[in-house]
Design brief:
heterodimer, A: alpha+beta, Phenylalanyl-tRNA Synthetase, Chain B, domain 1, Phenylalanyl-tRNA Synthetase, Chain B, domain 3, 5 domains, seven-stranded mixed beta sheet, five-stranded mixed beta sheet, B: alpha+beta, BirA Bifunctional Protein, domain 2, about 20% strand, rod-shaped
Chain lengths: ~700, ~325
C-alpha cells in the first residue's frame, strides 16, 4: 500500500519526518518496507497484514497514526468530518435520485448494503493536477475526471466505487443477485466470462452489468460520451468476492479490499465524498438524495477486557490509564465496569477484533512491545528430547560419514523417472512449479543420480554420497498417503582420491557392498543376507541384490542398468542402494552389550578350495560355518583367484578361519578334525577340491 | 698355552677387522661356535694330566670371555655407524602428500538442524515429526485460518488433491499435537516446508523451518521473549538481543515477528506469539488456566548468517564443492 505523506497530512498533522514516522508505524505492526522519495513528495510503502483491511487507505493509516502518536498529532477538519459521517446513523433519503434509478438487493447475505447516487449532465475531461499527482504517487494511472474521482476516493477512504453510464442500464435499474446459469459478461478488461451461481452480479433489469466487488462490465462503462452517471457504493461479503475473483482469475484493487473486509459505514461516506469531488472537478452537482438499501445494519459489538489478564498475558504491568488512553485513541471507547475491568465498543472498521485477547494485543501494541521483559519459561520442568526417527537417522548419517560418504539434501519434487520403483505411481502435484518438479519422489535413486550428474557436469567425477529423506507413496491415487523415510547411497568414479603412492580403483559393486555392510554393522544388524536381484529394471540383472535381515526386506542395491545409464546419459558406471528406514529401525540393535575378552588363545587355519563359479559364495560360507561348529569364531575370505591352473568356470577361494574354545585351549587334533569336516562338507555339496 | 694366546691374537685382529654386524656375526660364530677352535681345544682336555686340567679349562674360559667382550665392543661400534648409515639411507621427503582419508561431512542444513535441536532440547522441548504432505485441515483450519482467507495467499501452496497440500508451515504440527497431548507441553518440530515461490537467491519453493510451542499455566509474552533470547544467544552469541514487532498470524494473539540484533541493526528471524485462545479452546484446553506461546523461523537463515552463504539455492543444489566447505563444523 502506497501512502503519499502529503495526502496523509490532509487528515493528520504531525512533526515527525518520514523516516521517524515509518519507524513508529513499523514498530506498531504496519511495516513500512520503504520510504520512496519521488520528485512530487515522499511516499510510504506499507505492508498491510491480511487482517487489517481497515488500513488499506490513507484515512485508515491516518487513524493508526493518530492512535500511535497521541498528543504529538492533530486530526484535521477533514478527518473530523469523515469520522463524524461514519458515525452518522440516520438513514438517507432517496430524494430526487429515486426518479432516475432504482436498486433492488435480491441476496442481502452477499450484499448487505448497496447505495447509489446519480449525477446528470457531466462532461468527461482530465482531472485536475492535484488528483493526477496523488494518483501517480500511489502508483495509479490517471484516466479521466470520473474514473480518477472513484479511484481517488478508494485510495483515500478504502471503499471501492464504480461509475455506470446511467443510459446503458436497462430500465435504469440495479438488481444485485447471483448469476444465472448460462449468463456471460464482458468485463472492463475486454474479457468475456461465463458466470454461474453463487457468483454475485450487479445487473440491470435484464443482464449482469458488473461482477460485484470485482470488476465492472464493458457495456455500461463510462465513456467520453457519457452524460448521466450512476455511482455505486456497496458492501459485499468478503468470501463471496474472493471466490468469484479466484474463479474468474481477476484480481483488482476493489476485490483486494473487499476480500479483506471494508467498513460497511463507508458505503454512504465514500459515495458522498466522490460526489463532492466530482462536483469540485466538473461543477456538476449530484442529484439530491441517495438510494441506500441497507436492510440489516450489524449490531454494535462490545467486548470486556480485564487489565489484570492483559498484564498477565503481555508479561508487563501498566497503569489502567495508559491502557484506557490507548483504547480510546483506537476508537474502542472503553468504559469502566468494575475493578480493572472495562468494556470496549468495537467500531465497524475493526473486523479483526473479536476477543478479549485482541484487545490485549491492541493495548500491548500501542504501549509498545519493547516493554516486554525477558523471562525464562515457567511451569513444569520438562525433559527435552529428539524424536526417535531423528536419533536413528543420525546413527545412519554417522555410519556413512565413517565410511567416507558425503551427505546431500535434495528436493522432494522431481519428475516421472525410470529410476522410480517398478509398479509405483508417484504422487503428482496439481500445480507444479515446472514439469520437472511435477511429482513427489517415491524413492531416493533419482535424487542421488541427479546430484551425481550435476556434479559431474561441474568437473567432480568421483562421487560417494548419501541422503536421508521422505519419500511419498499412494494407493490407487487415493489418500491417505504414505511417507516412508528412505536412506540412499550412491557411488561412482574412483573410490578414494588418487594418490601418488597408492593405486586407486574405480568403484564397483563390492565397494558399494562394503558401505552397505558397514552400515549394517554399525546398526548391529548381524543377520543380514544378500540375495541376487535379477528382475528390477533399474539395476543390472547380474549385479544387484536384495538385502534382508532375517525375513525383513531392508532394501535393494546394485549397479545401475545399462539402459538407465543410457537414459540418463551417464558416462561411468553408477552403484546405488536404497533402504527403507523403518525396516532398518525395527531390526537395528538398540545398544551395546559387552562381551568379555577371550582368555584362551585362538587357532588360525587357512583353507583353499577350487569350486564351480556358479555356486553362490553365501551358500559356501554357510556350509563352512555349519560344518565348523561352535568353535569357529571368524571366517574371512582373503583371496579369490581365477585362471591357470584353476580349471575354466571354476575359481579358487581361500579362507582364513579362526577357531577358539572359550573354555579350554584347542588342540591341533581337535582343529584338524574340524577342518576335515569342513572340507568333506564342501566336497559333498559343491564338489570342492583342495588347492595346494 | 701358547696356542690359546696366538688364537686370541688372531681372533682379536679378525674382530677388529670386521666392517659390518653380519661379518662380525660370522667371526663370532667361527671363534665361539660349537665347532670353533676353542671348543676344539677343549676336547683335548681329556688327554692332559689331571693336575693341568683345571688350569687349562680356566684359560679357555677366560679366552672365551675375552673374545665375547671384544665381539660385544665391536658390535656396539658397528651398530652406531650402521644405524647412522641406515637412517641416512632411509630418508624420505616429508613434504610429499600423505595418503588421503575420506573427509566428508553432514549437509549444512543437517548441521544447523542439529544445533537448533540441541539448543531447544536443552530448554526442555521435545521434538516430534509430522508429514510433508499434509492435510489442509492441519495446515490451515486447525490453526484458526478462517475459511478461504486472504492470509492463505501469503503461502501459495502446492496442491496434491482436495484437502491435501505440501505443508506450508511447520506450525501444522500444532494441530496434530493438541488433539493428542494435554498441557503442560513443550514441543518442537523441524522440517521441510513448501511454498510456490519463484526461486532466486533469497526465495525457494522448498525451505526448512523449526516450530516450537509451549503450553502451561501462566505463560506470557515475557516468557516467549525470554525463551527466544536464550535460544538466540546460544545460536548467535551471548550479547544478542531480541526485539518484537507486532505482526499477524492467525494462530497467535498477540502475534509478533522477532528480530535479533545483528551487526549494528536488526535482522528479522521469524514469527511468534501467544497461541490463539480459539485454538486452545477448540482442543478443550481451559484458557483461563493455561496459556502458551509459539515461535517459528526458517532454518536456512542461520547458516546464511553464520557462514556467510549468500545464495539460498546452494542448499538444495548439492554442489560437492559447496558441501565440502563445511568439514570443519
Amino acid at each position: 500500500m502506497l501512502i503519499p505523506i502529503e495526502w496523509l497530512k490532509e487528515f493528520v498533522q504531525f512533526d515527525l519526518d518520514a523516516d521517524r514516522l515509518a519507524e513508529r508505524l513499523t514498530m506498531a505492526g504496519l511495516e513500512v518496507e520503504e520510504v520512496l522519495r519521488q520528485p512530487e513528495g515522499e511516499v510510504l510503502s506499507i505492508y498491510i497484514t491480511p487482517n487489517r483491511g481497515d488500513c488499506l487507505s490513507v484515512f485508515g493509516i491516518a487513524r493508526e497514526v493518530y492512535a500511535l502518536l497521541g498528543d504529538q498529532c492533530q486530526r484535521t477538519p477533514l478527518y473530523e468530518r469523515i469520522a463524524q459521517a461514519l458515525n452518522q446513523r440516520e438513514p438517507f433519503e432517496a430524494g430526487e435520485a429515486a426518479q432516475w434509478a432504482s436498486v433492488v438487493i435480491e441476496d442481502p447475505a452477499l450484499c448487505p448494503r448497496y447505495a447509489a447516487r446519480v449525477i446528470r449532465g457531466i462532461k468527461v475531461a482530465p482531472s485536475p493536477a492535484k488528483f493526477q499527482r496523488r494518483l501517480n504517487l500511489a502508483d495509479m494511472r490517471p484516466i479521466s475526471n470520473l474514473v480518477d474521482a472513484t479511484n481517488y476516493v478508494m485510495l483515500e477512504l478504502g471503499q471501492p466505487l464504480h461509475a455506470f453510464d446511467l443510459e446503458t442500464l436497462a430500465d435504469h435499474q440495479i438488481v444485485v443477485r447471483q448469476a444465472r446459469e448460462g449468463e456471460t459478461i464482458q468485463t472492463l478488461d475486454g474479457n468475456i466470462h461465463e458466470v454461474q451461481p453463487p457468483m454475485l452480479m450487479i445487473c440491470d433489469s435484464q443482464k449482469p452489468v458488473a461482477v460485484a466487488g470485482v470488476m465492472g462490465g464493458a457495456e455500461t462503462e463510462v465513456s467520453d460520451r457519457t452524460v448521466n452517471l450512476l455511482l455505486e457504493s456497496a458492501h459485499f461479503d468478503p468470501l463471496s468476492v474472493r471466490r468469484t475473483a479466484k474463479t474468474l482469475d481477476i484480481r483488482t484493487e476493489a476485490s483486494y479490499r473487499f476480500e479483506r473486509h471494508v467498513d460497511p459505514r463507508l458505503v454512504s461516506v465514500a459515495l458522498n465524498r466522490v460526489c463532492e469531488l466530482i462536483e469540485e472537478m466538473t461543477g456538476a452537482p449530484a442529484v439530491t438524495g441517495m438510494i441506500d438499501v441497507y436492510p440489516a445494519p450489524p449490531p454494535q459489538r462490545s467486548l470486556t477486557v480485564r487489565m489484570e489478564r492483559a498484564e498477565h498475558l503481555l508479561g508487563f504491568s501498566f497503569d489502567d490509564s495508559e491502557a484506557v488512553a490507548a483504547l480510546e485513541r483506537l476508537e474502542l471507547r472503553p468504559t469502566h465496569q468494575e475493578a480493572r475491568i472495562y468494556q470496549a465498543q468495537v467500531p465497524a472498521h475493526r473486523q479483526d477484533i473479536a476477543l478479549e485477547e485482541d484487545l490485549v494485543e491492541e493495548i500491548g501494541r500501542i504501549l509498545g512491545y519493547d516493554r516486554i521483559p525477558e523471562a525464562p519459561p515457567v511451569g513444569v520442568s520438562m525433559q527435552g528430547r529428539d524424536s526417535d526417527l531423528s536419533q536413528f537417522l543420525n546413527r545412519l548419517r554417522h555410519a556413512m560419514l565413517t565410511a567416507g560418504l558425503q551427505e546431500v539434501v535434495n528436493s522432494s519434487f522431481e519428475q516421472e523417472s525410470p529410476l522410480h520403483p517398478p509398479g509405483v505411481q508417484a504422487v503428482p502435484i496439481r500445480n507444479p512449479m515446472r514439469p520437472e518438479l511435477s511429482v513427489l519422489r517415491p524413492c531416493m535413486l533419482n535424487s542421488l543420480v541427479a546430484t551425481a550428474d550435476y556434479n559431474q557436469r561441474r568437473g567432480v567425477q568421483d562421487i560417494a554420497i548419501f541422503e536421508a529423506g521422505r519419500t511419498f507413496r499412494q494407493t490407487d491415487g487415493q489418500p491417505p498417503y504414505e511417507e516412508p523415510v528412505a536412506f540412499g547411497l550412491l557411488l561412482t568414479g574412483k573410490w578414494r582420491a588418487p594418490h601418488w603412492q597408492a593405486s586407486t580403483q574405480e568403484v564397483d559393486f563390492y565397494a558399494l557392498k562394503g558401505c552397505v555392510e558397514h552400515l549394517l554393522a554399525r546398526l548391529g544388524i548381524t543377520l543380514a543376507h544378500f540375495e541376487p536381484l535379477t528382475d528390477d529394471p533399474r539395476f543390472h540383472p547380474g549385479r544387484a541384490a536384495r538385502v534382508y535381515s532375517g525375513d525383513h526386506l531392508l532394501g535393494v542395491m546394485g549397479e545401475l542398468h545399462p539402459e538407465i545409464m543410457r537414459a540418463f546419459d551417464l558416462k561411468r558406471r553408477h552403484f546405488a542402494a536404497e533402504f527403507e528406514v523403518a525396516a532398518l529401525q525395527t531390526t537395528a540393535a538398540l545398544g551395546v552389550r559387552f562381551q568379555p575378552l577371550p582368555k584362551l588363545p585362538a587357532v588360525l587355519r587357512d583353507l583353499a578350495i577350487v569350486v564351480d563359479q556358479n555356486a553362490l559364495y553365501a551358500d559356501i560360507e554357510a556350509t563352512v560355518r555349519a560344518a565348523a561348529g561352535e568353535w569357529l569364531e571368524e571366517c574371512r575370505l582373503f583371496d579369490r583367484y581365477v585362471g591357470q591352473p584353476v580349471p575354466e568356470g571354476h575359481h579358487s577361494l581361500a579362507f582364513a578361519l579362526t577357531f577358539r574354545n572359550p573354555r579350554q585351549t584347542l588342540t591341533d587334533e581337535e582343529v584338524n578334525e574340524r577342518m576335515e569336516a569342513i572340507f568333506q562338507a564342501l566336497e559333498t555339496r559343491f564338489q570342492a577340491q583342495r588347492r595346494a | 698355552m701358547e696356542i690359546i694366546q696366538s688364537l686370541l691374537t688372531e681372533a682379536q685382529s679378525a674382530i677388529h677387522g670386521t666392517h659390518s654386524t653380519t661379518e662380525l656375526n660370522g667371526v663370532e660364530s667361527h671363534y665361539l661356535g660349537r665347532k670353533g677352535p676353542l671348543q676344539e681345544l677343549m676336547k683335548q682336555i681329556g688327554s692332559l694330566p689331571n693336575d693341568q686340567k683345571p688350569l687349562f679349562g680356566q684359560q679357555i674360559n677366560q679366552a672365551r670371555e675375552q673374545l665375547a667382550q671384544w665381539v660385544s665392543e665391536r658390535r656396539e661400534q658397528l651398530r652406531g655407524s650402521e644405524l647412522t648409515a641406515q637412517l641416512q639411507q632411509e630418508r624420505i621427503d616429508p613434504t610429499l602428500p600423505g595418503l588421503p582419508q575420506p573427509n566428508t561431512t553432514l549437509h549444512p542444513l543437517t548441521l544447523t538442524a542439529k544445533r537448533v535441536k540441541a539448543t531447544l532440547i536443552g530448554l526442555g522441548f521435545e521434538f516430534v515429526e509430522g508429514p510433508e504432505l499434509e492435510e489442509f485441515r492441519y495446515n490451515f483450519d486447525a490453526l484458526n485460518y478462517p475459511e478461504d482467507h486472504p492470509a492463505m495467499d501469503e503461502q501459495n501452496s502446492f496442491h496434491v488433491r482436495e484437502g491435501w497440500l505440501m505443508r506450508t508451515q511447520m506450525t501444522a504440527l500444532q494441530g496434530r499435537t493438541y488433539g493428542r497431548r494435554k498441557p503442560p507441553m513443550r514441543m518442537a518440530t523441524i522440517g521441510r516446508c513448501f511454498r510456490k515461490e519463484n526461486v532466486d537467491a533469497t526465495h525457494h519453493h522448498t525451505f526448512h523451518q523449526v516450530d516450537a510451542f509451549m503450553v502451561d499455566e501462566g505463560i506470557s509474552m515475557a516468557h516467549l521473549k525470554g525463551t527466544i533470547t536464550l535460544f538466540a544467544r546460544q545460536m548467535f552469541g551471548a550479547d544478542v538481543r531480541v526485539r518484537f514487532r507486532p505482526d499477524f498470524f492467525p494462530f497467535v494473539e498477540p502475534g509478533v515477528d522477532f528480530s535479533i540484533s545483528w551487526k549494528g541493526g536488526w535482522l528479522e528471524l521469524g514469527g511468534a506469539g501467544l497461541i490463539h485462545p480459539t485454538i486452545l479452546r477448540n482442543y478443550g484446553i481451559d484458557t483461563e488456566r493455561y496459556s502458551g506461546f509459539a515461535f517459528g523461523f526458517g532454518i536456512e537463515r542461520i547458516p546464511m548468517l553464520q557462514y556467510g552463504v549468500d545464495d539460498l539455492r546452494l542448499f538444495l543444489e548439492n554442489d560437492l564443492r559447496f558441501l565440502k566447505q563445511f568439514t570443519t563444523e
